[in-house]
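Give me the fold.
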Amino acid sequence: MKTTLTQGKENLVNINMVIPAAEANTAYNQAVSRIAQYINIDGFRKGKAPKAVVERHVGVDRIQQEALEILVPKYLGQAIYDNKLDVISQPAITNYKFEAGKDVEVTFEVETRPEVKLGEFKGLDVKVEIPAEDPEAFDKALNTFLTQHSSMELVLDRPSNETDTVVFDFDGTCNGEPIQGGSAKGYALDLAHSNFIPGFAEQLVGHNIKDEFDIQVTFPEEYHDEKLKGQPATFAIKINEIKQRVLPELTDEFVKKVSQFATVDELKADIKDYLEKQRENIKKVNAENAVFKQVVESSSVDIPQGMIDREVESLKADYQQRLSYQGIDWDSFIKSQGDDSSFNQTLVEDAKVRIKNSLIIDKISKEVDVKVEQADFQTKISQLSSAYGLAPQDMLKQFGQNPDFLSTLSQQIVNDKVREYLISNNTVEYVEVKSEKQAVEA
């Protein structure tokens, strides 16, 4: 087999192969036999029709295409290997010449990985911002634990306050017309964590059971319903119940009853340990992101349009799937963005970032000879199993049905190892950044 390469535009390469006539003839006869197995020809059992009859029935072109499917994997794979091509997309036949008794000429177009010009990726000094420690973090975590085991009790002797849950009926109108979906009976609203229209929950504070009154609100300008955007509305309210959250008393007996801990001290020690690990994880993630960002900014790569187009389609498919899970129609979502072209441009920019990041990680992994071992797969599957709350064997069973699972898992492992390498081979200085609240209090 003879092979010649010609460089196309951007990262496209044309591979011209000349396959010996004898090999092509053998593949052609195999193709005839293969096709004869699944076509019906009057007067012949499947697989028993002579070659000439099969040729007349399906056409020589169809048989030649089948023969190429037999020949191509072997010869194309060898050509890619011999020429050390880093192919990133499915090769496409652009031309072929297949004549009986003659060598076969086939031309493929393949897309190769674009060259990355790496900047410095080791020996760097990187400042990493991390949140300053929250002195209230422990108390908040402990309160969250107590809240999870709290109870709701009816309030009979006072008006509602901003931390209560109010059960009420409401009926909304806008410009004198009923609001579609704007009424309900016995609706329970946590006033401290309301997702209603701004100003709604606040007007339920200070009222007693059986109170009936109107509240006035204005729909936000960015509201999803065009008819209601920026419009004033009136809601008729009737308070049915007021409930307050009552936290349990923190005792050894309570802790032992609701958790795996025997004492309050054990619970508090676990919370402190969790917060420390959480902080260390934040430091690690921020450091990885900061170092990688500096490496990306000092590196360059010309991303071919074909790669961008495919990544945009992939991102769009991800968006559509996530929206469908939320019951949101794609066309309605695009309409809500106001400008289809600006959304597409956002996808293009996101695609460029993802592609560049991926190419740089791949380049570094080759530079430092990252290897993926069997133990790495076991560790990753264990991590995923823990995150999804599944046994490792169940995780493998679910994801193993996806043909891309192992490839995706392998890429995640490479990503992790490259980021670990960057942290280990660069100097990181952590800088604590106070929140707005902490800055004000200071």
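The chain has 13 helices and 13 strands.
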